[in-house]
């Protein structure tokens, strides 16, 4: 069985549990020191003009989808997991501006220039980087933008941690190989022509220790100041980007 099918089964199983419970509430809110990249992502999304056609790839069970819908956007959410899409359909049935489809981000079932915006939160490692980038570019209208939040693979501490999760069977080898890097971000900048990018969490690996001595709010301030002072890039844990198609 290839890695893509393994990940699909993993997410199918998670979604089945949600469907069986008939409860679509998701995980608790992140502590404030982990919210900075999420806030950056939402700020980028908040700049999308109302009524724009938005494609969300790797939408999972809609952790970020409702935010898009509340912005008054026309949203198509996609995921490779049939059961995740079923959760999405049930969860957001009240929105007339929403639809969901089963789709592989390497083979998006949409015509060229179909969307004003494509967005992704934490899904880029689930596909071949070059293929996914070209598919995103293809379905975007001229002047459209790809907005993403994801983890970065350059920091050796984070790479070791993810490899341990692979050894424990919590993730597949291909998701390690396809984890975004600074080089990938540069490839998007070259492909699209215009890029905004921000990096976060160079000290994330220290958070479990820092929270023993400081409040969550203080850790958040320390992390943000460190990132800005040293202009972190390859040492970052997370990044957000907006790549605009020229």
Task: Classify the helix fraction into a percent range.
Answer: 40-55%
CATH topology-level name? Rossmann fold
Integer average pLDDT: 93
Largest sheet entry? 7 strands, mixed
Number of H- or I-type helical stretches: 10
- Terminal CA distance: 40 Å
Describe this structure in words.
By secondary structure, the protein is of the alpha/beta class. It has one domain: Vaccinia Virus protein VP39 (Rossmann fold), CATH 3.40.50. 42% of the residues lie in helices and 20% in strands. It has ten helices and seven strands. Strands 3-2-1-4-5-7-6 form a seven-stranded mixed β-sheet. Helix 5 links the parallel strand 4 and strand 5. Helix 1 packs parallel to helix 4.
Keywords:
Rossmann fold; globular; 246 residues; alpha/beta
Q: What is this structure, in a nutshell?
A:
By secondary structure, the chain is an alpha/beta fold.
Describe how the helices and strands are arranged.
Layout: H1 3-21, H2 36-46, E1 53-56, H3 65-70, E2 74-79, H4 82-91, E3 98-102, E4 115-121, H5 129-139, E5 140-151, H6 156-167, H7 173-177, H8 182-192, E6 193-200, H9 207-210, H10 216-229, E7 238-245
Parallel strand pairs: 1-2, 1-4, 2-3, 4-5
Antiparallel strand pairs: 5-7, 6-7
Helix pairs in contact: 1-4
């Amino acid at each position: 069985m290839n890695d893509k099918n393994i990940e699909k089964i993993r997410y199918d199983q998670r979604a089945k549990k949600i469907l069986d419970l008939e409860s679509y509430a998701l995980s608790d809110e992140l502590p404030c020191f982990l919210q900075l990249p999420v806030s950056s992502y939402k700020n980028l999304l908040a700049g999308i003009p109302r009524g724009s056609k938005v494609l969300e790839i790797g939408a999972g069970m809609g952790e970020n989808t409702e935010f898009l819908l509340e912005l008054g956007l026309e949203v198509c959410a996609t995921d490779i997991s049939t059961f995740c899409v079923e959760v999405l359909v049930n969860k957001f049935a009240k929105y007339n501006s929403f639809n969901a489809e089963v789709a592989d981000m390497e083979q998006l079932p949409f015509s060229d220039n179909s969307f004003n915006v494509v967005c992704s939160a934490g899904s880029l490692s689930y596909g071949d980087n070059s293929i996914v980038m070209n598919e995103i570019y293809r379905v975007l209208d001229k002047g459209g933008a790809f907005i993403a939040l994801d983890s970065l693979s350059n920091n050796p501490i984070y790479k070791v941690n993810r490899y341990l999760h692979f050894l424990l069977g919590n993730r597949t080898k291909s998701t390690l190989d396809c984890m975004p890097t600074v080089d990938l971000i540069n490839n998007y900048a070259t492909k699209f022509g215009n890029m905004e990018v921000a990096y976060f969490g160079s000290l994330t690996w220290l958070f479990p220790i820092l929270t023993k001595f400081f409040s969550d709010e203080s850790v958040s301030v320390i992390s943000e100041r460190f990132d800005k002072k040293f202009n972190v890039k390859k040492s970052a844990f997370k990044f957000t980007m907006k790549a605009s198609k020229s």
